[in-house]
Amino acid sequence: MKKIITLIKLILPFLAIVISVLVYYGVNDNGKQKKTEHPYYLYVLALIAILVLIEIVIGVFNRKVLNKIIYKAQFVTGVVVFLTVLNYLTTKTELLPTLYFPSLDRIFGLIVENRCFLLKNVIDSLLLLSEGFIWGALIGFLTGIALGFSKKVGYWLTPITKVIGPIPTTAWIPLALTVFPTTKGANVFLIAFAVWFPVTLMTSSGIQSVNNINFEVAKTLGASTFYQMLHVAIPAAMPSIFLGVFYGTVSSFATLMAVEMNGNSSGIGWYINWQKSVMMYDGVYAGLLIIAALCSLLLTVLFKLRDKVLVWQKGVIKW
């Protein structure tokens, strides 16, 4: 009985894909959607089927992979069903406005046909994001150490951090554009600010939560203040520091989209705003898909790095 249930779970994604293909060809279009050169939606379904099939084949020789695909099979089926319903509503009926809800063929087709232009904008966004992120994380890390390790520094900086830290980053846009001589400088500052506060807060909280006994033992053994900071405070605070980096990553992406929509001439945020202004919503949805994939990929990499560095906490926080 258990084997039959497992087999059904593995078949479900392919069954959903077959039904989606039948709906695609068997139900008449509403005639409102712009035709694409190729059935890109079907290509996506084929890609999903191939990936699932590859995992099943690997799972025959690797039980861990098989268990993983069995667990994911129902979710993959749900995704295909959702795409089928969405494709039906946009291309087969007139329930949704065609202007604001383009077909999946148009969205996926735009990604494929404009891949070079989209890639250029993605690279521009990543360069801007990385510059702001590095500055924000570095300054936030140093500020967090100063706040957490020194009461004198904390006396002066804590009130300032509490006042300016919670202010939404987008509220600083007019001031940043006035103060900085270039739009890029202002954008880097805004992204850095979005990362700085969560990294500062979590770093200082992590250091302050370290048991004083650890510092006393290190001091008794002759450790200098710098040694205590480097070998006691920072390693103990690493879980909190990584949390700050995660929060900062999400904030940096939100800020990136906001600043690219205000004066930039490139970037994926600029691309979305441009497509919206010319009423090309297939480009808007394509840009959103790319942003979601980038953010998810970056967070996944950070979580993998966290699990490597903090081996003893592997799996405590999952992504």
Mean pLDDT: 87
Count of strand segments: 0
CATH superfamily of the largest domain: MetI-like
Number of domains: 2
Strand content: under 5%
The CATH architecture assignment of the largest domain turns out to be: Orthogonal Bundle
Order of helices and strands: HHHHHHHHHHHH
Q: Could you name the CATH class of the largest domain?
A: Mainly Alpha
What is the helix fraction of residues, given as a range?
A: over 70%
CATH-assigned fold name of the largest domain? MetI-like fold
Tell me the major beta sheet: none
Rg, Cα atoms, Å = 25 Å
Distance between the termini: 33 Å
Shape: flat
Task: Catalogue the unreliable spans.
Answer: none
Structural category: mainly alpha
Q: How many helices in DSSP terms?
A: 12
List keywords for this structure.
MetI-like fold; 79% helix; mainly alpha; 2 domains
